[in-house]
Amino acid sequence: MLNPVNNLKTARQNILMIGIIVFLIVAIPLPSPVYAVEDVLTLGVFPRQDAKTTTKAFTPLVTYLSKKLNRKVILKMSFSYSNFWQDVKEKRYDIVHYNQYHYVKSHVKFGYDVFAMNEEQGKSKITSGIYSIKNSGITKPEDIKGKIVAFGGGPKSMVSYILPLHTLKKLNIASHEFKSIFAKNPPNAVLSVLFNTSDLAAVGTPVLLMPKITRSPDASNLQELAVSEAIVHLPWAYSSELPQELKRKIKEIYINLHTSEEGKQILKKAKVTNFLEANDADYNRVREIIFEVIGVNYQS
User: Fold this and answer.
1) pTM score > 0.85 for this model?
2) In degrees rounded to 5, what are phi and psi of residue 91?
3) CATH class of 128-229
4) pLDDT tens-place string over residues 199-225
5) Is residue 24 pLDDT above 50, yes or no?
6) Plot region of 172 (φ>0 → left; ψ -120 to 50 → alpha; else → beta)
7) CATH code for the part of the protein at 37-123+232-294
8) DSSP string covering 58-121, please?
9) N or C terminus of the chain: which is more exposed, having fewer CB within 10 Å?
């Protein structure tokens, strides 16, 4: 004969067990995808801005690449141009975002191939400008002579050093006629003018639109003394040692980001309007300018 008490007890135990199982299914998150060590790809970004800003800007892209490639992609940050370039030399990056000078040199010496470039504010080209403070008495390029000019980044910076020197050279102003100093990154070069630690700043013109500058109450006091010719925008390259099919997939992901809502949000986070397809020949004018300014030929 069945015991109603025992049956009720067993039913309650079964209900409790089912409840525990459901709780565990809901509460315990699914494990993240597991990647083999050899599948890990390293993406490097040059220190155009500070590390915190750069990490925030490009983490969504890295996450998306990991998902689409089914490979773990990690973002490797550098806190200075010299450290960044050391990583380029040692081929620590599988994918790398850097300036035009970095690209043409690394293409010849270390086998990096360009596949895309930035489009910012809808523009596929970029210019550099030379800026001073209004009412400083520095109102024209000739006034630079004898003054302190802050360049953003270092002597390997294309838009914030080599391109401004090219502009000044065309204006018959030689580099020995003013004192050059180097800020940690381009925004800091502009801030050095606003804080009166330098007389002028030479940076890419998009730098003036960066929040670090626009938030400054003194930003409206900047005036442009000279602007360079436009050159092709900042490149993205990958190591020539990557498999051909993998390179094809990476390029496809970049240039198609603008076709989806998720991709558009990734572009917005990266502060670009698009990634455009690019090839080595697009940077030939960059090579000419480098040769005119520093006398080094990086022909591929």
Assistant:
1) no
2) 55, 40
3) alpha beta
4) 999 999 999 999 999 999 999 999 999
5) no
6) left
7) 3.40.190.10
8) HHHHHHHHHHHHTS-EEEEE-SSHHHHHHHHHTT--SEEE--HHHHHHHHHHH-EEEEEEEEBT
9) N
